[in-house]
Amino acid sequence: MQALAELKEQIRQALPELDVVIGWQQGYDALHTSPLFIRSEEDLEKLVVNEFCVVNPASYLREMRGGKKVGLVLKGCDSRSVIQLVQEDLLKLEDLTIFGFGCNGVLNHAKLQARFGDIGYIKSIENSGASVTIEVDENKETVPFSELCADKCLTCSYPNTLQCTHFAGEESSKEAESEQDKALEEFEKLSMEERFSFWQDQMRRCIRCYACRNACPMCVCKDHCLANSRETKWLSEEVDVQNNFMFQLIHVMHLTGRCVECGECERACPMDIPIMLLRRKMAGVVRDVFAYNAGTNAEETPPLMCFKVEEPTIEERH
Amino acid sequence: MSGSTGLLAEGQDLRIVGFLCNWCSYGGADTAGVARCEQPTDLRVIRVPCSGRIDPLFIARALISGADGVLVSGCHPRDCHYAEGNFYARRRFEMLKQFLSVTGIDPERFHYTWVSASEGQRWQDVVTSFTDRIHKLGPAPKLSGGTGYDEECLKEIAAAVALGDECPCHKEKA
């Protein structure tokens, strides 16, 4: 891959000026990558960029606050979380060096698992861009990429890294399969009662491990999270439907106008609860009302941090 | 009716929580009371310093705990005691209002509006029509797990209002 070679060269040149560069390396099997923290040229050789680079490296940024010079290898969607943090004054753009490239989408492990069964014994995988060929045990099968990719890639309109310092390789010309989020559209056909009982069932499964929160690049409160606060006790330690649902609402509402829909929360969820439905709905509302897409322009002010005296898009409530 | 601790009045009352700003709407409700305007008895009022103090999570918490309706009222835009609290509030409430449908909680159960201290009559209209609306919708569906709606929940929300904590991450900055 040409982009990878270029990326490595760009990082090699920038590395002396930086404390660390965060990217991806090959994980424990062909299907997984794990985060890579590049501090020297030897580390650099491990860097990979492919359709398994699912994790958002920006999630590690909150530990890096405070003047460190950090480099990041980012997909388009990941770069939005960085821009959003800059917008909120939580990071300084001058402390960051962003290495961008054109992304053609990432694969979803839950979908792979559903399609191929036990993917623990994977023999090989090939991706032609349009389709993926996987060999598991004696099975060899070719499946269209769009059936296996992460949901966010289906509606992605930012395949190229935004506001990057260096860009490697060619720009991706990947286009969104559809403008609307199909899963959300389907869900919204349900009646209120059906939706309510759907969430009731889903939230019963939640084990409140907070993986969704911890994986979220925008959840910067760390030790101050409302979910753990005692003075104003928002949540009890009980893992019941009410508390679980409330936790999800806390998460969604703290992401209003901030969520960049990177999908890390749902990916990290060990119970496969479709929590992106809630987040995409909220992001959609923000788009509808404020014509605002989180993390696309570092100069903008997030919509809930400002106001207009007359709100042309908000119906006056009497 | 899980965990209800005597908050429910006798008869047909539903459980409606009202967040009223100290400077306008609370005064408006008072004006209505002084003028002996007849009002429905379902509303349980939590007084807040400003509609800008109302964390949308207060509303979400009330609803998720099984409140049948939440009414929020502040000063009219441009008339805020703190100049711009209700401008911010308006954006937050609108986001919540439009978001609620995806959770399966009927957005009709949440209403926000503006009432000034002199508008006793208007307060009567607002509270009566909202209560009527909630009565038409009937009791809200309740989650089967959890403690449900009880006095504790309202107390905790009221305590949260008094504490005045805010999201600390955006205070300390990078």
Please characterize this protein's 3D structure.
The complex is a heterodimer of chains A (318) and B (174). With 318 residues, chain A is an alpha/beta fold. Chain A folds into two domains: 265 residues, no CATH class; 40 residues, no CATH class. Chain A has twelve helices and eight strands. In chain A, a hairpin with a 6-residue loop joins β1 and β2. Chain A starts with a helix and ends in a 28-residue tail after the last helix. Helix content of chain B is 40%, strand content 13%. Chain B has six helices and four strands, in the order βαβαβαβααα. A four-stranded parallel β-sheet of chain B has the order 2-1-3-4, with helices on both faces. At the A-B interface, α8, α10 and α12 of A face α2, α3, β4 and α5 of B.
Gist of the model:
The complex is a heterodimer of chains A (318) and B (174). Chain A is α/β, with parallel strands linked by helices and 318 residues long. Chain A has helices spanning 2-14, 41-44, 76-87, 109-116, 145-148, 151-154, 182-187, 192-205, 211-215, 241-254, 264-268, 276-290; strands spanning 20-26, 33-38, 70-74, 96-101, 122-127, 131-136, 139-144, 166-168.
Radius of gyration of chain A: 20 Å
Total number of beta strands of chain B: 4
Question: How many domains in all of chain A?
Answer: 2
Radius of gyration of chain B, in angstroms, nearest whole number: 16 Å
Query: How can the largest sheet of chain A be summarized?
Result: 5 strands, mixed
Keywords:
heterodimer; A: 318 residues; alpha/beta; 2 domains; five-stranded mixed beta sheet; three-stranded antiparallel beta sheet; globular; B: 174 residues; four-stranded parallel beta sheet
